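Hey, I'm writing a tutorial for new members on how sequence and structure tokens pair up, and I'd like a real worked example in the thread rather than a made-up one. If someone can provide the structure for the chain below, I'll link this post from the tutorial.
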Amino acid sequence: MSHYEPPLISAERLIGGRSYDFSRRVAVMAIVNRTPDSFHDRGRTFALGKATEAVRAAAAAGADWIDIGGVPFAPGPPVPVAEELDRVLPVVEAAQGLAVVSVDTYRPEVAREVIKAGAAVINDTSGLRDPAMADAVAGTDASLVITHSLAPPRTEHPRPRYGDVVAEVAGFLRARVALALDRGVRPEQLIIDPGPDLNKNTLHTLELSRRLRDIAELGHPLLAAVSNKDFIGESLDAPQRERLAGTVAALVFWILNGARIVRVHDVKAAVDAVRMTEAMLGYRAPAYTRHNL
């Protein structure tokens, strides 16, 4: 079957002590938010006990990575660094040994502490708005996700405008990758995320999806953070809790166009969709074969 193969820089990587060949593997990243105001779970896992239960459930459902967040990107009141650390560090510790541990943060101070605690990925949704984030990751074994956005985290950016959204996102990511490399981050540490819906409307995100290969051509493993996003809801006229089928369709479409990590809320459905896609692409053997044999 003919399909798109992104030109990956350092396709074979060791992340959190686990080997990944992103030329033949897609990693499933589960979302666990210790926040009272996250856009999808609305505080469902804010309590520490609920968060640790969610970590165990995600690992049992087949998640490769678990992404732990203490402060959403979306507009809202400030959260002190100490409070963010209080939220995420116990969950980082609870996730050790169950999956690769990622932390969704834009603060270098938080990144340094969670890396010390065992986090193997820093997911910076601000796209190195603070260049010191690159310094926090450089010289460690942690991977760094660089995400496109226009506004700082926790701030409004109404009615975003682009001339060519794909070209502008690619240019931003190219520049931020160069910044990270200049500050000592190694190429094999980098992952890129074009930021679907982050300071983008539905038409922007659909255009980004159609031309995703232009972003994948940058050569770093591409993360698909499309789970339950508003572009799915608006495309399907589907409320927040009725976007699973649309999410699965978007995940598969992004994988076929170059994504190699998928960030998801509904882990079991995503794992099944990803593994089935890998099997059809010839990346993965069936779990067993009995039919007509």
